[in-house]
Structure formats: C-alpha cells, structure tokens
C-alpha cells in the first residue's frame, strides 16, 4: 500500500529530516511510528501524503509515485488518505458539522448523503449531538476527535495520524487508540506517530522507530 | 457534469454568504470598481455626444470668396481661371447674388425678407472647397492669396474651426484609449487586491482544503465568482454614476449650447453600452482574481 524506496528529505539549510528510508506497509496494516520530536516522524507522514516532496528516492502509494505527481493529479491521491494533523487544523469560523463535511464537499457528495455521513462520523468518534456547536467550545480531546471525524468521513483507505495522543491524558489516549483500532478492523491502513512508546506496546503492532531521520532497531 | 454544476452552485452559495457576511467590505470594493470604471465610460459618452454634432458639420475645408459689387466680368473670369489652376483647390462653385438670396430666403423661410430693402444686399460669391488633406497653414495661405485679388471683397475660411474640433475629438479618442488602458489595469489590480484580502482571511480553510484533496479549481472557484459578482455590480454602479453625472451636467450643457444656437445634450448610456461596460468590468475583475489566487496557490501551497 505504501512503499518508500531510498527516500531522503533535506530541507533548505541542509537539515536532513529523513535519510535513505526504505520500508513497505501492507494494505490493512496498523503501523506505529516512534521517535522523539525532530526524529522525522512528521516529515515521513508528509511524504506519504505528498505534502513534502522527497529530495531523493521514491514514495509509492497504491503503486503511484506520489513524489512525481503534478498539481492536478495530487488532490485525487489525497482523497484516499485521511489526515489527522498534530495541530488539528480545525476551522473555527464554522460549526462542527461544517468542519466535518469539508472533505465531502471537495469530493462532491450531495444531498442527504452528506448529512448521513457527517453524523455517522461524529457518532463514531463520540461527538454525537455536538454537530451544531462551534469547535471553540470543544475541549482539547474533543477537538482531536473532531479532527479524526473529518479525516474518516469520506472513508479513506489510508489514515495518517501525526501525534494524535499528544497532550492527552493516558485514559483519553487509550480511547483514541481504540478508535483507531476499530478503523483498522474494517481494513483501513493506519500509520500513527507518537513519542510515547508505552502506549503502542499495548497494541502489539509493528513499530518503526526513527532517530535523526533513520530507523533504529 | 452534474458534479461540476453542484460544485459551482456550492461556490456561488459561499460567495453570496461571504458578501452578506462582510457587507461593508463588499460595498467598498464595489464602489472603487464603479468609480474607476465610470471615468472612461463617462469620457466615452461625452466624446460620442460631441461627435453626434460634429459629424453633421462640414469637414471639407471651405472658403467663401465674396466678390466686390464693382467687380467686372473680366475680373470674375480671371479669378475663376486662377482657382481652376490652383493645386490646393478641389472644387469651385459660383453662387450669383440672386441665387444666394433665394437660398437665404429658403433657409429663413420668409418671402418678405426683402420687404424693407430696395435691392439685393448680397454679393456674388465663389464657394471654394479645398483639398481634404490641406493643412490649416495652406488654407490660410490660400485665403490670403485670394483676398489680394482685385475683384475680391472678402474671403472667409468657413470650416477651419470645425476641422480643429474634429482634430480635437480625434485627440480625445486617443486620450480615451490611454485612460481606458490605465484604468483597466487599475481595475484588475483593485479586484486582485480585494480578492487577495479575502484569500488571507480564508487562508486556513484553503490550506486544509488543499491538504485533504481539493483541486486548485475547487479553491479558485468561489473567488472567481466573488470577483465576477463584484465586477458585475461595480459595472452597473458605474453606469449609474455616469447616468447621474450626465443628468447633473445636462442643464448646464443645454444652456451653454443654446448660446451657440444648438440644441445639444449629453446622451445617456444605452442598454448595449451598459452590457459592454459590465462585461468589461466582469472580465477584468475575474482576471485580477485569477492572478491573485494563482499567486497564493503557487507561492504557499
């Protein structure tokens, strides 16, 4: 599903965020990405979504070389990917409902299907009944859930989550990971980054450990 | 196709929503466009109003050569010969005094014009049409030459001022072109800037949309609609401003024209012209917005 071939990313200024990474993630796999901040976790996720272009190597998603795609083709690849951002990127000028419907508008859903899907996604993440609230009124954990609802509302094949459990207490973090597990159970490919490895251990999945842009054992 | 229409409808709804949410901003942008567009349009109407009058005026440089009452047949014959040979002259017509009187009576519409007069006071005359390309200096030279002739009482250069007016209008038309080009550029810049402001207020939405798979055209569409709407309303407002200005100026213009014995007013915009002005403002606004969105998308995302 996701394949990295000798991928390096050097930012302007000569900083190597990731170096010569090669790995493969199978369809339907749940993979954790561990490492301290600055280890290159965010960059790796951005490379999968085509937000960053590799300086060298190739990133294949669904057999498509994301790094080679042009402006016109890239959006259609991104529609198969759900992104959960570290900083949430919630829009505070609109309701919870309108935040979640954004991917559906972009893809072109219409009519009662939109409402059905948005409410289902909110229900799934435990925000049922909050659809008309303004996101500013939500707690930090709820905002995280809203971000997840927006990422899954169009049922993408791949879900990328950048530090979804950061700033959450342990119980809440477990709830979020359980949520991801349920997506995994319906066949979604997940890549979840976190700096706290103890959380991942409970799930017994493959863990990719990054240090200074390279894999460690 | 259905999908495309739906996306467009969505963008249109958002655009209206945005304009309603920021009424003061929308109104200010609209007024700036309207005022910028009203200058060249008003100027154009002014010129075309004047042109309707000048088009009826004789453009051919014409001289009236009035003969002395005492001029002999020999002198008249010699003058006629001289005129026929002159290179600057295109056409000569002899108007005897009796014919001139008849023409005058026909124009004034009064048969008893002669009531108080014992004899026809008009002189015999030659109406000389000079070549079209004769310069004003050549015409004046021709007038002076003819005036020195022994049988000639007076020479009048009739159409010099009309010719000058025509040249002035031609100059005005070139000036109009310059003004149109400059203000067209200004208009595109103004809308481009207004749209840039709108882009900045919606920066986060654009960024998120792009990250979750929005195409450039999805992002561009609502801004182009907003620009088209601004252009359309701005164009209509410009026509309103121009019509108002004409209505305001017309009493003064009418009074001024009356002192020249002319019935002249500035004309109002015609429907086809209103459509044209709105078309131009819409196209320029959309062009400005397109550039603004393009720059944002390519610089930041």
UniProtKB/TrEMBL annotation, chain A:
**One of the record's GO cellular component terms:** plasma membrane
Record keywords: Amino-acid transport, ATP-binding, Cell cycle, Cell division, Cell membrane, Membrane, Nucleotide-binding, Translocase, Transport
Main location, first listed in the record: membrane
The UniProt entry's GO biological process terms, in alphabetical order, are: amino acid transport; cell division
GO MF terms on file?
A: ATP binding; ATP hydrolysis activity; transmembrane transporter activity
* Localization of this protein: Cell inner membrane; Cell membrane
InterPro entries per the UniProt record, alphabetical: AAA+_ATPase, ABC_transporter-like_ATP-bd, ABC_transporter-like_CS, ABC_transpr_LolD-like, Cell_div_FtsE, P-loop_NTPase
The segment(s) forming the ABC transporter domain are 2-217
Q: How does it sit in the membrane?
A: Peripheral membrane protein
Q: Which PANTHER family match?
A: CELL DIVISION ATP-BINDING PROTEIN FTSE (PTHR24220:SF470), IMPORT ATP-BINDING PROTEIN (PTHR24220)
Its annotated function is as follows: Part of the ABC transporter FtsEX involved in cellular division. Important for assembly or stability of the septal ring.
Stated family: Belongs to the ABC transporter superfamily.
- Assembly notes: Homodimer. Forms a membrane-associated complex with FtsX.
Q: What is this protein called?
A: Cell division ATP-binding protein FtsE
